[in-house]
Amino acid sequence: MELALKIKAAATDIAEELVAIRRHLHSHPELSFQEYNTVAYVKAQLESMGITRIKSLAQTGLEVLIEGINPHKKVVALRADMDALPILEANEVTYKSKNIGVMHACGHDVHTACLLGVAKILNTITDQFEGTVKLIFQPGEEKLPGGASVMIAEGVLENPNVNAIIGQHVMPLIPVGKIGFRSGLYMASTDELYVTIKGKGGHGAMPHLCIDPVVISAQMIIALQQLVSRQANPILPSVLSFGKVIANGATNVIPNEVYLEGTFRTLDELWRKRAHELMLRTAKSIAEGMGAEVNFEIKRGYPCLHNNPELTARSKAAAIEYMGSENIIDLDIWMAAEDFAYYSQETTACFYRLGTRNEAKGITSGVHTPSFDIDENALEIGTGLMTYLALKELSA
Q1: pTM
Q2: Which of 30, 81, 109, 141 is catalytic?
Q3: Same domain, yes or no, for 323 and 214?
Q4: At what angle do helices 269-289 and 213-226 cross, to 10 degrees?
Q5: What does DSSP assign to residue 231?
Q6: pLDDT tens-digit profile of 3-35?
Q7: Which of 148, 164, 182, 357 could, after both became Cys, cross-link 339 (CB 3.0–4.6 A)?
Q8: Is there a single domain that holds both residue 200 and residue 161?
């Protein structure tokens, strides 16, 4: 408990600084793989702390080493993502986005501020722990192919090799002061679907002279939905949703083509592969059977996110030590996706949730919404807890 109290005190000491950092980042959001000013700011913050082991990766990413005694004994990585979303912010706050149409609506400003806080705390106690903490400031979580995959390809998990990686993410469904964990499969894979159905347009009063792509698209959507309801194992979570349908005709005009965009998500990689084959075959057979053509593109996205049971159990136990058992909750499977999943496919990983909700303050909006915000008390909590988890894992 002595270590927990020491880390809590250190996090409290820099709480105001964490708020200032988060607000600066929130005011200056940048889109995926365009985080040039953000990464420059982060690097300047690190250098002001006297941290020198900084390496640039993926153009707008950083790998940072903080070495304790016997640095090669064990390496624990901590990850924060830095990109924002193409959303027009609706909040009227002093730290509102200055980049119109771009917003930190997923809390990546929080993640980055917390990891900078971790860096500051760890850098003052390098003589009090063994091993190395590798800080990963990652670009492009919100956009395929995912910044994690690029960072991994450029060696972020190597030299020195990472023994375990821990990530935290804001969760507006959880009250501030609470932390959520889930062992094993936690988040879904995600694939993007782009479909063009080419028929033959014409007058709406003479459909017999047309090959109607609107009707074909309707049948195709229903048939593809039935792949999930009738081909997938009922106990296996799967989601197939089409969010964009463009048929640019008119009341009496059948268009030449219809364009669809959708997403497919699941928690099983074997079923994922088979579902891709079934979608392509089903779409082709429906289109050809009705005299049309179809171009069905599947952009393979992030894999399933798997939390290592042993690391997650150790992290949860450490969180209970730091926060108290009453503040630790168990999470359900979530069909959203996260490119942290790439790390979980490569090494021992734990991805947990940081509560940011405060109904009394009206802070209840979900991520990816124009009104998303956090209770900033989460910054001190997130910084202290992540520091504690890293130190506990180094000593495990």
Answers
A1: 0.93
A2: 141
A3: no
A4: 150
A5: I
A6: 999 999 999 999 999 999 999 999 999 999 999
A7: 148
A8: no
Which domain range does residue 61 map to? 2-188+304-394
Q: Which amino acid is at 65?
A: L
- Separation CA 111–CA 252 (nearest Å): 52
Same-domain check for residues 53 and 135: yes
36 Cβ contact list (under 8 Å, min separation 6): 30, 60
CATH number of residue 133's parent domain: 3.40.630.10
The distance of Cα 359 from the centroid of its chain, to the nearest Å, equals 24
Angle at 293 between CA 292 and CA 299, to 5 degrees: 140
pLDDT digits (tens, 9 = 90+) for 251-275: 999 999 999 999 999 999 999 999 9
Does residue 277 carry a catalytic annotation? no
Catalytic annotation present for 141: yes
Residue type, 160: P
Residues 259 and 212 grouped into a single domain: yes
Q: Which of 63, 83, 109, 375 is catalytic?
A: 83
The beta strands (E) that lie in 87-159 are given as 132-138
Residues 102, 88: Cα–Cα separation, whole Å? 6
Do 170 and 277 share a domain, yes or no?
Answer: no
Number of domains in the chain: 2
Is residue 294 located within the same domain as residue 308? no
String of DSSP letters for 68-120? -BSTTS-EEEEEEE--BBS------STT--SSTT-B--SSHHHHHHHHHHHHH
